[in-house]
Amino acid sequence: MLTLASALSDLVGGIYFSQGRSTVVLFNSFYVVQFFLLTWFYFELAKTKKSRTTVLGGLFIYAVAFVLVSVYLQSFLEYQTFLWTISGMIMILFSSSYVVYLFSAGTVMQNHASFWINSGILYYFSFNLFLFVMSSYVLTKLEPQIGMLIWSFHNANNVVKNILLGLGISSSAAATMVK
């Protein structure tokens, strides 16, 4: 579902940009959907009470941040870059915690679907965190062509993330076919 939502958001965003239309609501909506889908993913992976508490705590922090950012800092009708940064930090926490869990459990990583998916999530949010921090400036203060050039770094990271997600999905499908 995340890959489809991402592809659809990128496609519609590209069309909007080429038509000179605003992508603000589209991108803000995508980041909310992405956060909830990934939170659901990590909640399903959570095997211990501590890990489930971590996921629920991250969800609570996001919900509070969403309200505070929307009311006091950046409305939903402007790029909510503060919220993107907060959600990125939460996803880095979730994905790093899962890496620690996998290694401490002695899990064999090869052909482990959630390992590849988690790697894509960790890669994407880690490499884009700096971009999210400066995105308010990039998206609103720079010339649109320069802003999109810098934002293309995000798109390149998105491609790598999607390749890692694809590896996870394909290894999951292969594991299902073997059973």
Automatic annotation (TrEMBL):
Enumerate the UniProt keywords alphabetically. Answer: Membrane, Transmembrane, Transmembrane helix
The transmembrane segments are 24-43, 55-76, 82-103, 115-139
Please identify the protein, giving its name as recorded: Uncharacterized protein
**Species:** Pseudochryseolinea flava
